Amino acid sequence: MSVDVFLSESKIQERIEQLAKMINKDFAGEELYVIGVLNGAFMFTADLVRHLNMPVTIDFMSASSYGDSTESSGELKINLDIKVDIKDKNVLIVEDIVDTGLTMTILKKNFEARGPKSLKLASLLYKPARNTHKVNIDYLAFEIEDKFVIGYGLDFDGRYRELPYIGVYSAEDSQ
Ligand code: PRP
Protein backbone atom coordinates (compact mmCIF):
# COMPACT_ATOMS: atom_id res chain seq x y z
CA MET A 1 0.00 0.00 0.00
CA SER A 2 1.35 3.44 -0.86
CA VAL A 3 0.08 6.93 -1.47
CA ASP A 4 0.19 8.35 -4.99
CA VAL A 5 0.33 12.10 -5.44
CA PHE A 6 -2.95 13.16 -7.02
CA LEU A 7 -2.69 16.94 -6.69
CA SER A 8 0.84 18.16 -6.05
CA GLU A 9 1.78 20.84 -3.56
CA SER A 10 2.70 23.28 -6.35
CA LYS A 11 -0.54 22.64 -8.24
CA ILE A 12 -2.59 23.27 -5.09
CA GLN A 13 -0.68 26.44 -4.22
CA GLU A 14 -0.94 27.79 -7.77
CA ARG A 15 -4.71 27.24 -7.79
CA ILE A 16 -5.12 28.83 -4.35
CA GLU A 17 -3.38 31.95 -5.61
CA GLN A 18 -5.85 32.08 -8.52
CA LEU A 19 -8.83 31.74 -6.17
CA ALA A 20 -7.40 34.44 -3.87
CA LYS A 21 -7.10 36.80 -6.85
CA MET A 22 -10.81 36.29 -7.60
CA ILE A 23 -11.73 36.87 -3.95
CA ASN A 24 -9.54 39.98 -3.77
CA LYS A 25 -11.28 41.36 -6.84
CA ASP A 26 -14.79 40.50 -5.61
CA PHE A 27 -14.25 42.02 -2.17
CA ALA A 28 -12.04 44.96 -3.07
CA GLY A 29 -12.64 47.77 -0.57
CA GLU A 30 -14.66 45.47 1.73
CA GLU A 31 -13.95 43.53 4.88
CA LEU A 32 -14.19 39.76 4.87
CA TYR A 33 -15.00 37.24 7.62
CA VAL A 34 -13.34 33.96 6.73
CA ILE A 35 -14.76 30.91 8.50
CA GLY A 36 -12.79 27.66 8.15
CA VAL A 37 -14.65 24.41 8.75
CA LEU A 38 -12.60 22.11 10.97
CA ASN A 39 -10.87 19.84 10.81
CA GLY A 40 -10.38 19.31 7.11
CA ALA A 41 -10.15 22.94 6.00
CA PHE A 42 -7.44 24.11 8.40
CA MET A 43 -4.65 23.98 5.83
CA PHE A 44 -6.61 25.38 2.89
CA THR A 45 -7.86 28.23 5.08
CA ALA A 46 -4.33 29.03 6.29
CA ASP A 47 -2.90 29.08 2.76
CA LEU A 48 -5.80 30.99 1.22
CA VAL A 49 -5.82 33.87 3.72
CA ARG A 50 -2.10 34.48 3.16
CA HIS A 51 -2.99 35.79 -0.31
CA LEU A 52 -5.97 37.97 0.65
CA ASN A 53 -5.35 41.68 0.68
CA MET A 54 -8.49 43.11 2.31
CA PRO A 55 -9.05 43.39 6.10
CA VAL A 56 -9.80 39.82 7.16
CA THR A 57 -11.21 38.31 10.37
CA ILE A 58 -10.57 34.59 10.67
CA ASP A 59 -12.53 32.12 12.75
CA PHE A 60 -13.22 28.40 12.71
CA MET A 61 -16.15 26.13 13.36
CA SER A 62 -16.79 22.43 13.54
CA ALA A 63 -20.04 20.80 12.56
CA SER A 64 -21.33 17.37 11.62
CA SER A 65 -24.34 16.70 9.47
CA TYR A 66 -26.82 13.95 10.06
CA GLY A 67 -29.47 12.86 7.65
CA ASP A 68 -30.43 10.53 4.91
CA SER A 69 -28.26 11.41 1.94
CA THR A 70 -31.33 11.25 -0.29
CA GLU A 71 -33.26 13.77 1.83
CA SER A 72 -32.86 17.46 1.27
CA SER A 73 -33.06 18.27 4.97
CA GLY A 74 -30.66 17.21 7.65
CA GLU A 75 -29.61 18.02 11.15
CA LEU A 76 -26.51 20.03 11.84
CA LYS A 77 -24.65 19.35 15.05
CA ILE A 78 -22.40 22.27 15.86
CA ASN A 79 -19.43 20.96 17.80
CA LEU A 80 -17.66 24.33 17.89
CA ASP A 81 -19.33 27.55 16.84
CA ILE A 82 -17.75 30.77 15.61
CA LYS A 83 -17.12 33.44 18.21
CA VAL A 84 -17.69 36.37 15.86
CA ASP A 85 -21.00 38.00 15.04
CA ILE A 86 -21.48 37.79 11.27
CA LYS A 87 -24.59 39.98 11.06
CA ASP A 88 -24.18 42.44 8.17
CA LYS A 89 -20.69 41.07 7.42
CA ASN A 90 -19.26 39.58 4.24
CA VAL A 91 -18.70 35.91 5.06
CA LEU A 92 -16.61 33.35 3.23
CA ILE A 93 -17.00 29.75 4.40
CA VAL A 94 -13.90 27.69 3.62
CA GLU A 95 -14.37 23.93 3.26
CA ASP A 96 -12.01 21.17 2.19
CA ILE A 97 -14.51 19.05 0.28
CA VAL A 98 -18.11 19.08 -0.89
CA ASP A 99 -19.10 15.46 -1.24
CA THR A 100 -22.86 14.73 -0.95
CA GLY A 101 -23.30 18.45 -0.24
CA LEU A 102 -25.42 17.85 2.86
CA THR A 103 -23.04 19.53 5.32
CA MET A 104 -22.75 22.71 3.28
CA THR A 105 -26.46 22.82 2.45
CA ILE A 106 -27.43 22.94 6.11
CA LEU A 107 -24.44 24.97 7.27
CA LYS A 108 -25.20 27.65 4.70
CA LYS A 109 -28.83 27.77 5.90
CA ASN A 110 -27.61 28.12 9.48
CA PHE A 111 -25.31 31.00 8.48
CA GLU A 112 -27.97 32.73 6.34
CA ALA A 113 -30.19 32.82 9.43
CA ARG A 114 -27.53 34.92 11.19
CA GLY A 115 -28.11 37.77 8.72
CA PRO A 116 -24.76 38.24 6.93
CA LYS A 117 -24.41 40.93 4.29
CA SER A 118 -23.16 38.28 1.88
CA LEU A 119 -22.34 34.58 2.13
CA LYS A 120 -19.92 32.80 -0.18
CA LEU A 121 -18.36 29.36 -0.20
CA ALA A 122 -14.83 28.35 -1.14
CA SER A 123 -14.09 24.64 -1.41
CA LEU A 124 -10.84 22.98 -2.25
CA LEU A 125 -12.51 19.90 -3.74
CA TYR A 126 -15.86 18.89 -5.21
CA LYS A 127 -16.88 15.35 -6.10
CA PRO A 128 -19.82 15.59 -8.52
CA ALA A 129 -20.26 11.79 -8.65
CA ARG A 130 -21.26 11.74 -4.96
CA ASN A 131 -23.35 14.90 -4.92
CA THR A 132 -26.98 14.60 -3.83
CA HIS A 133 -27.49 18.16 -2.52
CA LYS A 134 -26.67 20.84 -5.04
CA VAL A 135 -24.57 23.53 -3.39
CA ASN A 136 -23.33 26.62 -5.12
CA ILE A 137 -19.55 26.76 -4.69
CA ASP A 138 -18.41 30.31 -5.44
CA TYR A 139 -14.68 29.53 -5.40
CA LEU A 140 -13.81 25.96 -6.27
CA ALA A 141 -10.20 24.84 -6.58
CA PHE A 142 -10.63 21.36 -8.09
CA GLU A 143 -13.45 19.14 -9.31
CA ILE A 144 -12.34 15.54 -8.83
CA GLU A 145 -13.39 11.99 -9.64
CA ASP A 146 -14.81 9.71 -6.97
CA LYS A 147 -11.46 8.73 -5.44
CA PHE A 148 -10.67 8.41 -1.75
CA VAL A 149 -8.40 11.37 -1.26
CA ILE A 150 -6.17 12.14 1.71
CA GLY A 151 -3.71 14.83 2.68
CA TYR A 152 -3.73 18.61 2.74
CA GLY A 153 -6.25 18.53 5.59
CA LEU A 154 -8.16 15.44 4.51
CA ASP A 155 -7.85 12.36 6.65
CA PHE A 156 -8.16 8.63 6.68
CA ASP A 157 -9.10 7.65 10.21
CA GLY A 158 -7.54 10.82 11.54
CA ARG A 159 -4.24 10.35 9.71
CA TYR A 160 -2.49 12.06 6.75
CA ARG A 161 -3.94 15.55 7.25
CA GLU A 162 -0.40 16.96 7.45
CA LEU A 163 0.63 16.04 3.90
CA PRO A 164 1.31 19.14 1.76
CA TYR A 165 -0.27 17.41 -1.27
CA ILE A 166 -3.45 15.45 -1.96
CA GLY A 167 -2.93 11.76 -2.51
CA VAL A 168 -4.88 8.60 -3.25
CA TYR A 169 -4.15 5.14 -1.99
CA SER A 170 -2.54 2.80 -4.42
CA ALA A 171 -2.55 -0.99 -4.08
CA GLU A 172 1.05 -0.97 -5.33
CA ASP A 173 3.75 -0.95 -2.72
CA SER A 174 6.10 1.99 -3.03
CA GLN A 175 9.17 -0.14 -2.23
C1 PRP B 1 -15.95 16.23 5.59
C2 PRP B 1 -15.68 17.57 4.93
C3 PRP B 1 -17.04 18.19 4.89
C4 PRP B 1 -17.97 17.01 4.75
C5 PRP B 1 -18.40 16.89 3.35
O1 PRP B 1 -15.92 16.40 6.96
O2 PRP B 1 -14.77 18.34 5.65
O3 PRP B 1 -17.32 18.95 6.03
O4 PRP B 1 -17.25 15.84 5.16
O5 PRP B 1 -19.30 15.84 3.17
P1 PRP B 1 -20.75 16.03 2.60
O6 PRP B 1 -20.69 16.96 1.44
O7 PRP B 1 -21.12 14.63 2.18
O8 PRP B 1 -21.65 16.54 3.69
P2 PRP B 1 -15.69 15.23 8.00
O9 PRP B 1 -17.02 14.94 8.65
O10 PRP B 1 -14.98 14.09 7.35
O11 PRP B 1 -14.81 15.91 9.11
P3 PRP B 1 -13.32 16.52 9.04
O12 PRP B 1 -13.39 17.83 8.28
O13 PRP B 1 -12.99 16.74 10.46
O14 PRP B 1 -12.42 15.53 8.36
Descriptors for this entry?
single chain, 175 residues, alpha/beta, six-stranded mixed β-sheet, 3 helices, binds 1-O-pyrophosphono-5-O-phosphono-alpha-D-ribofuranose
Discrete helix count: 3
Strand percent estimate: 25-35%
Number of domains: 1
Ligand species: 1-O-pyrophosphono-5-O-phosphono-alpha-D-ribofuranose
Query: Order of strands in the sheet with the most strands?
Result: 4-3-2-5-6-7
Q: Based on the coordinates given, report the CATH architecture.
A: 3-Layer(aba) Sandwich
For the record, what CATH class applies? Alpha Beta
Biggest pleated sheet: 6 strands, mixed
Give average pLDDT, whole number. 93
Structural class: alpha/beta
Which residues form runs of ≥5 with pLDDT under 50? Answer: none
Please provide a brief summary of the model.
With 175 residues, the protein is an alpha/beta fold. The chain is built from 3 helices and 9 strands. Helix 1 crosses helix 2.
Can you put this structure into words, describing what you see?
The chain is of the alpha/beta class. The protein has a single domain (4-174), classed as 3-Layer(aba) Sandwich (Rossmann fold). The chain contains three helices and nine strands. The protein has helices at residues 9-26, 42-49, 102-112, and strands spanning 2-7, 32-38, 56-66, 75-80, 90-98, 118-126, 139-143, 149-150, 166-170. The strands form two sheets. Strands 4-3-2-5-6-7 form a six-stranded mixed β-sheet. A three-stranded antiparallel β-sheet has the order 1-9-8. The longest helix has 18 residues, at 9-26. It starts with a strand and ends in a 5-residue tail after the last strand.
